[in-house]
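Hi support team,

I submitted a single chain yesterday and got back a structure, but I'm not sure I'm reading the token output correctly. Could someone confirm the output below corresponds to the sequence I sent? I've pasted both exactly as they appear in my results page.

Thanks,
R.
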Amino acid sequence: MRDRWIPVSDKTAVQLTVAQLFSCKIFIVLPALLMVLLVSSCACVQPVKTQPGILPVADNKGMPSVISSLMVQADEQYMQGEYEAALATLERAVRIKPRYAEIWSRMAQIYAQKGDSKQAKQHAERSSSYIKNNPALKKFNDSFIQADE
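Hi R., thanks for writing in. Yes, this is the structure output for that exact sequence:
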């Protein structure tokens, strides 16, 4: 027997499709599948920092991948005690995108770790001048700015 196409409205087609789903008992599997998709998509909304880094706050989500990778590299160098290498890596990032506050805050932390509070304050002030909506990073920078006063 050949299938015949009968012209129907969109509403009828949807009703038929829903009726077919119920008759196939897929309605039991469908909610579970939708839940899995919902949970997996929510897990991707906010990235979690999996390794320790220089900053105690999350980075800007809209950061270019080249900047992000340089900052990860600098974080790794910092955690290994290679402060000069970390600063050199961050200086490369600054040459690419000089208005990212996270770069300047990382440099402030490194200078503070090295005991150079003057440089730490200058870099924290520069970082704060680029912050648009990140109160946690602003508070982090203020700790360097107020410590030198």
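A quick pointer for reading it: Residues 41-50 have pLDDT under 50 and may be disordered. Let us know if anything else looks off.

Best,
Support desk
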